[in-house]
């Protein structure tokens, strides 16, 4: 799981300025992302059959590049298309219920505070997403930025838990995140809004590879 978290791309139709989600994801896959999460949020988000069709297309694309396909906060869709996993926040379906329904799938959980970590069924998830690292415009209800503080605190008491940092992350902060013992970074805007998704992703991957080997 830790290897999959290295460069985790999170994206939905609203995150792509030119409404070109499929092409953005394919360029990111070519550039070296290691995990993809379909996070379809916002006032114009796809719903029902349109969302399902997009999810199926994205899943086919990810599997072509041997990258796991995760869906955000929609366990019914995970089951419907047999996706590789589910990511949930603190206010979504309970971890225990998600694990009961998805016994063999990847389950990720968002954590922003030590209290959330301590109150969650961490033993039932495959990884946690810690953030927001910096202020982010990709999530309307984002919590205050926490930097590396929570990652460091969790790592001290749980050295083996796969952790990915998320929220306002760009190339300049990757080294500090890896130094804090996160296993990777989750990125939205730095990739989805790049004028050259492939080159940006490739540079991010190279930076991560270097930071993880030092």
Q: How would you describe this protein?
A:
The protein is of the alpha/beta class and 214 residues long. Helix content is 39%, strand content 16%. Strands 1-2-3-4-5-6-7-8 form an eight-stranded parallel beta barrel, surrounded by six helices. Strand 6, helix 6 and strand 7 form a beta-alpha-beta unit. Helix 1 runs parallel beside helix 2 and helix 1 runs parallel beside helix 9. The longest helix has 17 residues. The protein is globular, with a radius of gyration of 16 Å. The model has no long low-confidence stretch (mean pLDDT 94). Keywords: Magnesium, Metal-binding, Thiamine biosynthesis, Transferase. One of its GO terms (molecular function) is thiamine-phosphate diphosphorylase activity. Condenses 4-methyl-5-(beta-hydroxyethyl)thiazole monophosphate (THZ-P) and 2-methyl-4-amino-5-hydroxymethyl pyrimidine pyrophosphate (HMP-PP) to form thiamine monophosphate (TMP). InterPro entries: Aldolase_TIM, ThiamineP_synth_sf, ThiamineP_synth_TenI, TMP_synthase. Its EC number is 2.5.1.3.
